[in-house]
């Protein structure tokens, strides 16, 4: 998709390789990027520093780091004192939702990005989910992303008024980590 010059997009920028690649693709496509990084109490705090460096390097109109605390819910090795499994075979990852699943994380992240989109009068959100993610995480799946677009049109003033047709871009969703 080639946007009209000046088209704004909110890009979820965790600092990891997937979101960094996604941010680069949004910029390459011509979007004016507004980067959103969520400090949600994750144990891998180094990604927050990486997000600042990546966004600074690739460029964004604005970079917001929002603090929310998903540790209060627990239930994930990424936000609780639960061991993070290493070296799981692909069959096992595809067979079950892993302990690293953070309950509703991408749903929450996309909701926050949607709120910022509405205030920016932007209609595009980029997220760096990929095929490896959606094999185990429900809110990384293509069907979820399509349904979130529908929700965005029903749950926002701009959507209800017909001024916005929100699009969720997941350019890596059918790709592996490689």
How is the secondary structure organized here?
Blueprint: E1 8-12, H1 17-29, E2 32-39, H2 46-58, E3 62-67, H3 90-95, H4 105-120, E4 124-126, H5 131-134, H6 142-155, H7 157-160, E5 167-169
Parallel strand pairs: 1-2, 1-4, 2-3, 4-5
Helix pairs in contact: 1-2
Structure description:
The structure is a single chain. The chain is an alpha/beta fold. It has one domain (8-169): HUPs (Rossmann fold), CATH 3.40.50. Helix content is 39%, strand content 14%. It has helices at residues 17-29, 46-58, 90-95, 105-120, 131-134, 142-155, 157-160, and strands at 8-12, 32-39, 62-67, 124-126, 167-169. Strands 3-2-1-4-5 form a five-stranded parallel beta sheet, with helices on both faces. Strand 2 (32-39), helix 2 (46-58) and strand 3 (62-67) form a beta-alpha-beta unit. Helix 1 (17-29) packs parallel to helix 2 (46-58). The mean pLDDT is 83.
